[in-house]
Write a structure and sequence with these properties.
Structural class of chain B: mainly beta
Number of strands of chain A: 9
Radius of gyration of chain B: 13 Å
Distance between the termini of chain A: 37 Å
Helix content of chain B: under 10%
Number of helices of chain B: 0
Oligomer: heterodimer
Number of helices of chain A: 0
Largest sheet of chain A: 5 strands, mixed
Low-confidence stretches of chain B: none
Helix content of chain A: under 10%
Mean pLDDT of chain B: 92
Number of strands of chain B: 11
Low-confidence stretches of chain A: none
Strand order of the largest sheet of chain A: 1-9-8-3-4
Strand content of chain B: over 45%
């Protein structure tokens, strides 16, 4: 089942903030929102995750709406190395559950 | 600390041949996973394991078998390779972390079946 919806592709100017949206209207109360990215066919890399509150780490910020039906990943100052496919995943950590990656958003950072 | 390693990095098989992909992790993680990624697609879960000696089917398990005899290793087997199994295979591991469920991925194995 497709649990998340993301735009297929986005462009962002180098140095500007990249805002990547994700819709997860069927998210349940105990499911977290995770973001991963995949650079040029390498293994995916964890970015950030959250449940209700906004989160920030050294890589990005995650803004989750109050109703939790959508979220936005923010890369505050995009660089060329941020060009990648970004995956939004909803997940609850219990035995037997699975990560569904979907097709993600292909972000291109333009010089 | 090597993280997650995969062997081999590349492989070409003929239809009907068999092979085993090895995944090893040195982070003492309980969970391990095998994914496949076809061109232009996201990752799809093949099989996973929640601990030594246990395995379970993922989204696309047909044509594959797995074994987790040691905690640090997770093997993916193809008994009779088919061209439809041409893909990039990624292994991942994670700890049983409650709210934190970060998966660590290997570099991938590129498999071509002719």
């Amino acid at each position: 089942d497709a649990k998340t919806t993301q735009p297929t592709s986005m462009d962002c100017a180098e140095g500007r903030a990249a805002n990547l949206p994700c819709n997860h209207s069927t998210i349940s109360g105990n499911e977290y929102v995770y973001w991963y990215r995949q650079i040029h066919s390498q293994g995916p890399q964890y970015i950030i995750h959250g449940l209700k509150n906004n989160e920030t780490n050294e890589m990005a910020s995650l803004i989750i709406t109050e109703d939790r039906k959508s979220s936005t990943l923010i890369l505050p100052h995009a660089t060329l190395r941020d060009t990648a496919v970004y995956y939004c995943i909803v997940y609850f950590s219990n035995t037997g559950n699975q990560f569904y990656f979907g097709t993600g958003t292909s972000l291109t950072v333009i010089p | 600390n090597a993280g997650v390693t995969q062997t081999p990095k590349f492989r070409v098989l003929k239809t009907g041949q068999s092979m085993t992909l090895l995944c090893a992790q040195d982070m003492n993680h309980e969970y391990m996973y095998w994914y496949r990624q076809d061109p232009g697609m996201g990752l799809r879960l093949i099989h996973y394991s929640v601990g030594e000696g246990t395995t379970a089917k993922g989204e696309v398990p047909d044509g594959y078998n797995v074994s987790r005899l040691k905690k640090q290793n997770f093997l993916l087997g193809l008994e009779s390779a088919a061209p439809s199994q041409t893909s990039v295979y990624f292994c991942a591991s994670s700890s049983w972390g409650g709210s934190s469920y970060e998966q660590y991925f290997g570099p991938g194995t590129r498999l071509t079946v002719t």
